[in-house]
């Protein structure tokens, strides 16, 4: 699935352009510029799935470095400093990854987005509020 099928292509370009310079990336501003804040919980899950390159249910540090390429092929790589800052902001339990819970909750067939490493929830946008 292409990110442009979920988010507006012009918004993606504006966001990438805003953070084209190394060490300028701010994940909260970036997600706001691409319009992620106004998207449904289902769309947020779709965006996450696109960014999870190895389909592990998590975005590890190695994948996070290339997160802008998930929005557009010409997106730049994040610097090590940006990658570590982004991971630190999203990884509340210190396991080195953020993501969609790779396990199904035994009481539901829904997956939960656990970007702030909280309990299973039904609305991933609520869980992601501190993330973007």
TrEMBL record:
The keyword Calcium applies. GO terms for cellular component: cytoplasm. Pfam families: EF-hand_7. The keyword Protein biosynthesis does not apply. This is Parvalbumin. GO terms for molecular function: calcium ion binding. Belongs to the parvalbumin family. It comes from Neolamprologus brichardi (Fairy cichlid). In muscle, parvalbumin is thought to be involved in relaxation after contraction. It binds two calcium ions. It comes from the Eukaryota. Ca(2+) 1 binds at residues 52, 54, 56, 58, 63. SMART domains: EFh.
